[in-house]
Amino acid sequence: MNKIVVTGSLHYDIMLQAPHRPEKGETVIGSSCTYKFGGKGGNQAVSAAIAGAQVSFVGAVGADDPGKFLLSVLQNNGVDTQQVKVITTVPSGMSVAIMDAEGDYGAVVVSNANNWIDSQQLAEEALWQDVGMLLLQNEVPEAVNLQAATEARKHGALVCLNAAPARVLSAPLQACIDLLVVNAVEARDLSGIAVNSLQQACTAAEALGGSFKAVVVTAGEHGVAFCERGKSSQSLPAQKIELISTHGAGDCFMGMLCASLLQEQPLAQAVANANQAAAEHVSRKSS
What we know:
- The strands form two sheets. The protein has a nine-stranded mixed sheet with strand order 5-4-1-8-9-10-11-12-13, with helices on both faces. Strands 3-2-6-7 form a four-stranded mixed sheet.
- The model has no long low-confidence stretch (mean pLDDT 93).
- The radius of gyration is 18 Å and the shape is globular.
- By secondary structure, it is α/β, with parallel strands linked by helices.
- It has helices at 40-50, 65-76, 142-154, 171-176, 184-191, 198-208, 249-262, 267-282; strands at 3-7, 11-17, 32-38, 54-62, 80-87, 93-99, 105-110, 131-137, 158-162, 179-183, 214-218, 223-228, 234-237.
- It contains eight helices and 13 strands.
- Helix 5 (184-191) packs across helix 6 and helix 7 packs antiparallel against helix 8 (267-282).
- The longest helix has 16 residues, at 267-282.
- InterPro entries: PfkB_dom (IPR011611), Ribo/fructo_kinase (IPR002139), Ribokinase (IPR011877), Ribokinase-like (IPR029056).
- Keywords: ATP-binding, Carbohydrate metabolism, Kinase, Magnesium, Metal-binding, Nucleotide-binding, Potassium, Transferase.
- This is Ribokinase.
C-alpha cells in the first residue's frame, strides 16, 4: 500500500505582484505577472511526488493550451495522469492571485473543467491497486469527494481531506475521513473558534477532534497544532525564516504530510516533516 491517489483541482495560475491588494473600486499598478501550474489538487500531488510518494491523479482539464501545460507538469514530476479526463467543451480551470509586498496573497478561482470530473473513473479497480491513501480538497464538488472517499474506504485506504476552502461537510463524507487538515480560517469556520494563536489552534484541533479521527490545524506564523481522537493536542511553533511568499505553502505541507504518513511515520513526526518542508518553501524564491 505505497501509493497516493489525489482527486482534486487543476488550475492554470496567473500570478500578479503588486504593492498591496486592491480595495473595492481601487486600481493598483502591479510590477510583474507570471503563469504557473496550480490548483490545490495538482500542487499537493506534485508535492507528494517530490516527497517520494507514488501518486496517481484523478481530475479534468480542458482541451486547450493551459490543459496541456497542466498535464505536462504532472507528468514531468512523475504523477500518473491516466485518470485525468480531457474535456473538449469546457476550458481548463484557472485562478488569478495577487501577491503583495509582504508576500501574502489573495486569489480568485474559476473551476471550469474541475466541475466535470468523471466520478465513474473512481470505481475502476486498477486505480486502487496498492493505494494506501486518498488525498482530497474542497475545490471540486462534494459528490466527487464522497465517491472517491467511499471507494478508498472500500479498498482499505486512509482518507485525508484538506478542507480548503471551508464548506459544510455532509455526514456521509465526514464518516469517511481519517485525517482533517485546515488552516486558521478554515478551522474557525468549521469549529467556531477563532485561531489567532497556537493555543487557540490547539483548542480548535481538539474541538474538531470530536468529529474526526485526527485533525491538523496550520496557524501560519504561529505554528501548527494537531490532535488525535482521545488524546491531548500537541503543537509545533513556526520556524524562524525570512518570508519570501506564502503562496503554495499549504499544498507543500499537505504533500509532505501525506507522503510521511504513507511511510508509516507517526502523526507527530509527519507534522514535523511537513512543517519543515513548508518553512523551506515560503523562504525560497520561486523559479
